[in-house]
Task: structure prediction
Amino acid sequence: MTTDPAGNSQLPFLYLALPVMDEPDFLLRLLNCLEAQTYRRFRLFACVNQPDHWWNDPVKISACRNNQAAIRLLFSFTGFEIDVIDRSTKGDGWTGKKHGVGYARKTVMDRINLVAGENDVIVSLDADTVFGPGFLESVALNFYTHADATALAIPYFHNLTTDPDACRAILRYEIYMRHYFLSLVHIGSPYAFTALGSAMALPVWAYRAIGGMTPKLSGEDFYFLQKLRKYGKVLLWNEGVVYPEARFSDRVFFGTGPAMIKGATGDWESYPVYPDTFFDDIRELYSMIPLIYGGRVDNRVSKFLAEVFREDDPFQPLRANQKNLAHFTRAFHEKFDGLRILQYLKRAKETDPSTDEENLLKFMQRFYPGPETEQLIPDKVNFSFTGATVETLEKIRMFLYRKEMEARFTSEPG
Result:
């Protein structure tokens, strides 16, 4: 604990959890960024990792050497305390199916858990991410102010690069993510947050309460935040913003890098702009929770859930085990969680003929009508993501970013 600049509160110690794999262009930049922080009560834990068999793969040998250089850099850096977990040196790398960023993130958080106090805070980082000098202080103040929060989904923003293809890909991906977030906000979903491994934090007591992180080859951040949300409140607003790198990367199976790679070929099938009507179906089911508590009620989503769970009435077990409507409502949202929401949207999209462009235009006109929205896309008849200029895509991204930040700022911790 330490005192904030005003001298009127006690702030938590921060443990920074960093997986590192093949980061020759970014790691030193991150270390310098951390050294410039105004808040000095932190300790960095870094897990340099790779599958051990990469040492015998000529295609991967450069990544192995980059990881060894990363280990040397981390051990030689003197700006602050760093604990290095070596899962890269030959004989120490991952073996079998247990590998990837999810295992690295879990490994480093588990190591932090052994030494941290329950009121300390774990801040999840990625090596290709930077932030302003007041970032760590903003996180510490946030958890001091919201001591009962189980997690913080930190605002993010990808800066554009000099590569026009990368710019187009990251802007299209951010439009997808911000539309998805805002759509969940509009229907009042408890899972209205964005999960990025480089943009989340949590108190140690919450990490222990949920039994730690469940390792995944990738996508561990999504499941992790969902697990934390089921346990308690997730904060959406933070003064400090993280700036991940917009880069093509195949180091994980899905996420920003793979989305950009697929998107650069014109394949956005996995990241569509869903129609408003799909979210309306979910909102309708939410509104029927009191009726569902009293007996079976069907709509498109409940029929989908019956199929997924292989139960004629997927909410009957909840009625039998919950003593009142409040408990039933919580159990309802734990069952129909963020994963099931995404699965429903993907299933509904399979037979939907609408285009991403149509859905974005309808969304903007419905929720944000006005001159600014009209000027974003003047030629609505001929608008397409592939034909739009980078400047137009950036204007759309910035509009959605501002709306998301407004929603985050006004949100009550849920």
